[in-house]
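May I ask you for just one protein sequence along with its backbone structure tokens in two labelled lines?

_____
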Amino acid sequence: MNEFPILSVIILLPVIGAVALFLIPSRRSEMVLPVAVAASLVTLGAAGWMLVEFESGFAGFQFVEQSSWYVPWGVGWHLGIDGISLLLVVLTAFLFPISLAASSGVKHRVREYAVAMLLLEAGIIGVFLSLDLLVFFVFWEVMLVPMYFIIGIWGGERRVHAAVKFFLFTALGSAVMFAGILFLGFLGGDGSPTFDFVKLLDSDLSRNAQFWLFGAFGLSFAIKVPMFPFHTWLPDAHVEAPTAGSVILAGVLLKLGAYGLIRFNLSLFPEASVQLMPVLAVLAVIGIIYGAIVAIVQSDIKRLVAYSSVSHLGFVILGVFALTTQGLQGGVLQMVNHGLTTGALFLLVGMIYERRHTREISQFGGLASVMPVYAGVFLFVAFASIGLPGLNGFVGEFFVLVGSFLSLPVYAVIAAFGVVLAAVYLLWAYQRMFTGPITVPENSVLHDLRAGEIVILAPILALILFLGIYPKPALDRIEPSVDAVLDRIERVTDYEVPSLGTTEAGR
């Protein structure tokens, strides 16, 4: 099973699809998006095969591919996947064909747009699969370029401002992380340079070195999440990005930062992670409350959803730095859940924008009377985002709150108010947009969801319901890898992971 290079194939398939787009004659431009969707569906099929073949209950990396490139520096092509990265790769492969199918509003430079989307997919998947730090960094930088152009070319009126802001924030973090990667690779090995993640796990780094490297890696990942106070680029990017760009940005790109914190910061710098746990938890809780409060006062529905991401990703970071099995499991699962619910919300916002060319909440009202299907779907997704039991958002947030209560009970109690605030900003927005009489005459002639739009939304809605009712398959794949991370922290530090029945972490 592992002899077939499935991981390399999954990375290469979107690239092959991007190349194929240039073979389409200019006079057949209407074929560009269907071909791009088909290419991304092939990638999804490969990811689905990998999901089926993945061995649950195994903590190590599977489908490993390794070959040396430059031996003196210890650089090589090293790919692998575990329970943490598995679900994120599948999520990526799942959202891209949906996003491309929802890109019918793109009318100019369609070929370049589709190419940028497929290259972005390849870069994101490469980040999740790379076990060589230099290769990881290459993919990290590669994905920055197409996202910059997606926002800057196909975005809204202030697209250039948003794209430049996104680029500058990300580039700053990347530069600091690259310095950290070089330091770790040349000085963190067993005497010879190596950028192999597995070998670097055995590095004997001093406490000071761990703190500096935690900061170098952590800054880049915190910007990408984004954590408070590095979040200011996100609302602008979301508002100005095209619908598909917002879906991918919220659904996948923001998860790269949280993934990096789990994969690299917790695993490579365990002592620093334990010592800085309260600091990261404070920032997470601030992000939860701040993001929710700011979302409440937004007049633009897309900006409201953007700030909701700041709040929801705060839950993810709190779960990660609770340093408990339940918290870390919940954090990983919540990454997937947020990708589905917020991705669906951005799709719905894009659909109403195509009809009215406005995102101002005050311009709507009474939509449920003319768009009952749209109103029902919006309410369903809003309930999932709030964390209604039976829908996917509940499971992730419940695990995060339980896990964080074991090690950080005060933070968990404060974070719980974020759930209440989420209900406030989403249900209040729903009330203003959908209930009561029609307040703007233009809304009275709006048509409900088309068949094509329902087809685009249906897979996400199905997964939201499935993961809410039966999250066991996801949790079974996440738990062994999460336990491996925590076991290593316990092995190399004085930290004792609390379990149910205790309320404090032992030191």
About this structure: Residues 59 and 484 are 6 Å apart (CA to CA).
